[in-house]
Amino acid sequence: MSIVKVEGLGISFGNLPALKEINLQVPAGGIYGIIGPDSAGKTTLLRTICTLLPYKEGKVEVLKLDALKDAAVIRAQIGYMPQRFSLYRDLSVEQNIRFSARLFGVNGKEYASTLERLYQFSKLQPFAGRQAGKLSGGMQQKLALSCALIHKPELLVLDEPTFGVDPVSRQDFWDILHALKAEGISIIVSTPYMDEAQQCDRISLLFKGKIIGSDTPAGILAGWKGHLYRLETDDPQRLYGYLKEDLRLGDLQLFGSDIHLGSEDALEDAVFEKWQKGCPALKSWQQIQPNMEDVFLKMMQ
Amino acid sequence: MKGLGVLSTFIKKEFRQIMRSREMLLVLFLLPAIQLLVMGFAVTNEVKHIDISFFDLDRSIQSRRLMEAFSSTDRFHLVEVGEQDRPELQLFRWKSKVVIVIPAGFERKLAQGRIPALQLLLDGIDGNTASIANAYVQSCVKGFTEGYLRGKDPRRVGYMLQGQKASEIIIQMSFNPDLQSNLNIIPGIIAVLVTVTSMLLSAISLVKEKELGTLEQLLVTPVKKYQLLIGKILPYLLITLLQLQVAVLLAGLIFGIRVAGSYWVLTLFSIVYLFTSLGFGIFISTRVESQQQAMFFSWFMMVIMILLSGFFVPVQNMPQGVRWVSFANPLTHYMTVLREIVVKGSGLMQLKEELLVLLGGGMLVFGFGILSFRKRV
Fold first, then answer.
1. Which of A37, A183, A279, B6 is the most buried (most CB within 10 A)?
2. Each residue of B214-228: pLDDT tens digit?
C-alpha cells in the first residue's frame, strides 16, 4: 500500500520549470528520503504533497485522497515541518504545542497524554516555559517536530529537518524518527546530506526538478557498475587537469583533496605508475567502495 | 462549536503575542497619547504672536494708542524699530511679518472726523498666515477707530463708517463660536490614529507570520481561511476600538472636548470604517513579503489618505480631479463623520448617506482583501 502516489507531476513558477514528470510511490510505514542538492525542487515537491501548492500537470494522491480536491481532509491527517523554524518565537514551548493542538482540535485528556509522550522523546519538559526563540537549533527542531506530531498524523513530512543542526543533535533527531517509524508512522524526509540517505528505507534522488533514481539505499549503491579508485594528491587541480585534458578520462570527481576515478575495467598498478610519471602530483591510489555521493554524482551526468 | 474553539485559540494567541511585545503596547497606548497631546496643542489654524513693527511718523498720542491696541492682544508681538530701519527691510530681514506705517497727520485727521489711511506691509510667503494677519489688523484698526469716535462723538459713528461699507455684517459662528482649532483638529487626529493603528498593525501582523514562516505551518492545519483571518483581524479591531476610547477620554480630559453627539453612533461608524482600513491591511499583506515592505506601503497609503482627507486642507479647495480622489478616500468620510458627531452632535439620521458610503467602501475593500488572501504558499 502506498501512502503517497505522484504521477507525472509538473510544476513551473512562471517560465521556470521547478518539477518535471515526477513519479513517486511512497510505501506506508517507512522512512522515505528525497535526496538532492539545493534548488533541486525538494521543497516544492514536499509542499505539493502537503497540498500547499496547486499544480496543473499530473496527479498527486496522499492517503488515497486527491491533493487538490481533498486538501482540507489531507491537512488534518498529516504533520508538516517546513524547512525554516516556523513556530512563534515569542511564545513558550508549551504555548506553541498547545496552540498547534487546539488548531487540530486536540483537547483534554488526549492532549495531556500526547504531550507527555512528546516530552518523553523530545526531553523538552524542563524548557516548557522558555520562549521558543531562545532554544538551541536542535531543540527548536524537536519542538517543531512535537508540534507536527501533536495530532498523531499518519504521515509526517519533514523538509530538511537537520539543516544547520550540529552532528550530535542530528543523530538524536534520526533516532527519534526511527522510533516514530517503529510506531507505524510513515515519514517523508528531504535532505541535502548524502550520508543521511543511509538512514532511509527508500530514497529518490532529485536533481534539477527530475527524479533520477528511486530505490533502497543499498539498491542505489548496487547500481554502480565498474570500479572506483581514490587518488591521493598534493595538487588536485593539476592532477585533475592532467587526467581530464591529457588522458581524456571522463569519470572524475573532486572529493576535497582527493580525486575519485571511476572505470568500467579494473586498473592495474602499472597504469597508475605510468600516470605518476606523467604527473608527479599523484601520490597514491586505492580501490574503494562507492558511497552515495559517488553514485549520485555519476547519475547526475 | 469546534470552529469557535479554534477561533478563540487564535485570538488568545494573538493577544498573548501583543502583550508580550513591549513595543506593541507602546505603539498602542503611549503613541496616541503623545500624538494627541503634541498635535492637539501644536497644530492650530489660529495665528498667534505675529511679529509686527510700527513706523510712527505722526508721533502723537493717538498713534501711540493705536500701537497699544495691537500690543495688548496675544495675537501680535511688537518688534522695536530703530532710527535706521526702513519698512520694507523689516520684512526682508525677517524681523517682522507685518509692518504698519502711521503717516504724519494721523491724529489730526482723526480729530477732524476723517478716516486716516495707514500703510500695511505683509510678508506673503505663508499665504495663510498673511491673510489671517491681515484680517486681524483690519479688525484691530477698525476697533480702534470706532472706539475713538465713540469716545469723541457717539452720534457720528454710524455716519463716519458709512463710507466704508453699505451694510454691516454680524458674524455668528455655529458649533464652534470661538473658532477653536482644537475642535476641528482633534477629531481629525482621532480619525488618523484609528487608521494608522488598524491598517499598519493588521498588515504587519499578517506579514510577520509570512516572514517568520509560521503562516506555512498554519496553512497545513485544518484551520479555515475565515478563522485565520478573523483570528488575526479581530484582535486589532478590538484594540483599535480600545485606543479610540483612550483618545476620546484624553480629548475630554486634556482639551475639554466632549462628544456632542451619541457615543454609540461614533463607535458604530468606527467599526464600519475599520473594515476598510483592516481590509487595506490584509490586502497590503498579501502583496508584500516582509514587515518592512508592509510598513512602507502602509505609510505610503496613509500619507495619501491623510493629505486628501480634508484633515489639513479643506476638500473644497482642491481641484476637481483631486476632489474625486478625495471622495473615494474612505478616511475623508470617516473624518467628516467624526467631526459631525464630536462637534455638531449629528445623529445617525443626518449621517445615513455617509454610513452607506462607508459601508459600501468597507465591504468592497474588505472583500477584496479577503479574496486576495490565499490559503496556499
1. B6
2. 888 888 888 888 888
What's the pLDDT score for residue B179?
66
Of the candidates B9, B212, B222, the beta carbon closest to that of A72 is on B222
Instruction: Check A91 against B16: CB less than 8 A apart.
Output: yes
Q: Name every residue in A having a CB less than 8 A away from some CB of B.
A: 47, 50-54, 72, 75-76, 78, 80, 82, 84-91, 95, 99-100, 102-105, 107, 147
Q: Does residue A190 sit in the same domain as residue A43?
A: yes
pLDDT at A237: 84
Q: Which of B6, B17, B217 sits opposite A86 (nearest CB)?
A: B217
- Residue to substitute from B205, B217, B230, B376, interface A, most A β-carbons within 10 A: B217
Tell which of A166, A194, A222 closes a domain.
A222
- Verify whether the Cβ–Cβ distance B219 to A104 is below 8 Å: no
Residue B307, C-beta contacts closer than 8 angstroms, at least 6 positions apart: B313
ipTM, 2 decimals? 0.75
List, for residues B126-138, the tens digit of each pLDDT value.
887 888 888 888 8
Strand A78-81's sheet: what is its strand order?
A: A78-81, A155-159, A186-191, A31-35, A202-207, A210-215
- Closest Cα in chain A to B16: A91
Instruction: Look at chain B and report how many structural domains it folds into.
Output: 2
Instruction: Give backbone dihedrals phi and psi of A290, rounded to 5 degrees, phi first.
Output: -65, 140
Query: Which residue type is seen at B25?
Result: L
pLDDT band for B168, please (50, 70, 90 cuts): low
